[in-house]
Amino acid sequence: MLSDTACKNAHRNEKASAGKPFKLSDEKGLFLLVQPQGESWGKWWRFKYRFGGKEKSLSLGTYPEISLSQARDKRDEFRKQIANNIDPAITRKIEKAGSTENTLAAVAKEFMEANRKNGAPAIMPTSSNVSSVMFSPGLAIGP
Question: What is the DSSP letter of 14?
């Protein structure tokens, strides 16, 4: 297991003398990726996991902005999601997108609401108008 001191001094590790990126492992898939950046070293928290038979990894932030205990807390949250058969990468994408619905109707509704808020006329009719046009008797096709 990592300690806060080991994270602080990662750039002084014997692996750093080669000047190549390396990993310092914690436990349960959490590790600190240490990479040279010119004169300094960048340190990124990463979480490696398997979901649906594939290996995946998520970034948890940079050290020291995200402390060791915060990174462990995030890792534990993601492990709970995996235990409930939820892919944390998909959850993160949904949160970043700001919408839980990924249907054409949901996207069209968001688009029309955004246009109305901006004062632009709606390009598409409302759903009530569409249904009345689609199901009107005058549009019947066939004999």
Answer: G
